[in-house]
TrEMBL record:
Keywords: DNA-binding, Transcription, Transcription regulation. The keyword Transmembrane does not apply. InterPro entries: DNA-bd_HTH_TetR-type_CS, Homeodomain-like_sf, HTH-type_TetR-like_transc_reg, HTH_TetR. Residues 1-19 have a biased composition (Polar residues). It comes from Streptomyces viridiviolaceus. This is TetR/AcrR family transcriptional regulator. Residues 1-22 are annotated as: Disordered. Residues 48-67 bind DNA. Residues 25-85 form the HTH tetR-type domain.
Amino acid sequence: MNQPRTNQARTSRPASASLTERRKAATQLDIARAAAELFAEKGPDGTTAEEIAGRAGVALRTFYRYFRSKQDAVGPLLSSGGDRWRALLADAGPEADLGEALETAAVASLSTPGDTTEEGLRWTRGLLRAAQDDPALRAVWYRVNQESEERLLPVVTRLAGPGADPLEARLLAAAATDAIRVALEQWATTDAATTGAGSPAELVVRCLRELTGGLRLLTPEAGGDGARTSP
């Protein structure tokens, strides 16, 4: 008699955990947007953690449950583009040309039509501009990129194939991550639109080709499943 209830409880736990994680992520994003709004209005120095919590509609203790500082609170906004890029890249098949897959996924993550992508880019531009005068905010940006690189490495390693040099895979993950970082930083210094000339998508193509052009993993001579078949 008790066995069916036990099985039901066991099978419901993953769904409950998934719902909990989604709620946590949603709360973190609400806090991140509130922080970004206040930074835009008052600057990081003029903003307090209490104000961010109030704008997000959460208690101060909830704020500190998720974030160590007010600058740390914008991390989810700054990392969202990298999350999209890695997800798109992970969908590439093992037969895909690695260089083309990196470029296609990067461009798609930065230029997908829709309010979400454009909003994310606008937030990123404002935060990167604010970070010029705020070392703590710059540190968050660098940390987000470091974490993105670490998460990108296993994706690149899988797509490169079993014969790929681990050092080359690591260099590629680092170069690709820096290509997006530099493209966004350069774009943030301009008033270029989110699409078209001077956009993040256009700049990231140039940065990717400049930073990864000399890597053997992307040249025909490298061999293996991940090598490019054309210059």
